[in-house]
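Extended Data, record Interleukin-6
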Amino acid sequence: QMCEKFTVCENSMEMLLQNNLNLPRVTEEDGDFLTFLSLQDKCLRKISSGLYTFQTYLKYVQETFTSENQNVESLSYSTEHLAHTIRQMVINPEEVIIPDAATQESLRTKLKSSKTWIEKITTHLILRDFTSFMEKTVRAVRYLKNTRSFS
């Protein structure tokens, strides 16, 4: 949809130049994915922290991608609920990093300072990385569901 509405596509040069966002990720740096998952509590903490961090980015998307406001609002609510649910599964839930108000405001200010064309690219990058993060989250939760007794 972003590609069609705003001509912001995956292979555009601007996409490559502007990807300086510090979005949450589960990457190869975390080690082999299955090894990473074997450290279940660490995995759950990272997922929950990442979902809480994405909240600020999703609010930005909601403000800039106004034609999809309702969908993004629903996505944001569901993400917050999932972050809270996964946080409750962590042995020490207080170890989950939740960005404080000052951090969120600083990030919002940084994101809002972008020019309009960068705004569209930023929105696309946030949604793309959120999708990737959620794909890995689903894999992790399925794995944990099969190896742990939680519902």
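Summary. The mean pLDDT is 78.
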